[in-house]
Each structure stands twice: as structure tokens, then as C-alpha cells.
Amino acid sequence: MPTTHFSRETRQILDQAIRRFGNPAHAREWFLTEPLPGYAGKTAAQLAAQGHFQAVLDYFDAVDAGVHA
Questions:
Q1: 3-state DSSP call for residue 10?
Q2: In this structure, are residues 13 and 56 in contact, taking their beta carbons and an 8 Å threshold?
Q3: Residue 6 — pLDDT band, cuts 50, 70, 90?
Q4: Where is the Antitoxin Xre/MbcA/ParS-like toxin-binding domain (predicted)?
Q5: Strands, DSSP E only, in the chain?
Q6: What is the dihedral of CA 8, 66, 31, 47, to 10 degrees?
Q7: Phi and psi at residue 50, in whole multiples of 5°?
Q8: Short-list 6, 51, 52, CA closest to 28
Q9: CB 20 within 8 A of CB 12
Q10: pTM, full prediction
Q11: 9: three-class secondary structure by DSSP
């Protein structure tokens, strides 16, 4: 399997997702495929690719605050 290189910011997002899902494979699947509410159907990967790393981190904060379930 080829090694994938991520930016520091993307790695931070993935690290948070791994802590939440408890499994790197599930975290990566979420990152690549799950549209985030409030972001026009974009995934975390799409937002990160557009440089919107903070939007994904803010999404995690909103989930922690109970805004998104």
C-alpha cells in the first residue's frame, strides 16, 4: 500500500478523527466520504484540499458542544 503524505493541518484533522472514531480506517473513511453539515455537502477532505482546515476543526468543536449530532 503506498504511503500517503498529508500536510501538518490535514494530519491534525485526521488525528482528531482517529481519537473520535478509535480506528484509523474509520477516521480516513469519514474524512474522505462524509459530508459535513453546514458546508454545502463537502467532506472534510474537500474542505482541507481547499485550505479550509479551520472549518473542519471548528466542526469538531461544534460536535463537542452538541451543535451537530
A1: helix
A2: yes
A3: confident
A4: 17-66
A5: none
A6: -70
A7: -90, 5
A8: 6
A9: no
A10: 0.83
A11: helix
Cα separation, 52 vs 67, in Å, equals 19
Query: What is the per-residue pLDDT across 34-52, written as a single tens digit (0 to 9) for each?
Result: 999 989 999 999 999 999 9
Query: Is the dihedral angle over the CA atoms 38, 53, 58, 12 positive or is it negative?
Result: positive
Alpha carbon of residue 47 to chain centroid: 9
Query: For residue 26, which of 35, 36, 16, 17 has the smallest C-alpha distance?
Result: 17
The mean pLDDT value of the chain amounts to 90
Residue with cell 474537500: 46
- For position 1, what pLDDT does the model report? 38
Matching residue, cell 472549518: 55
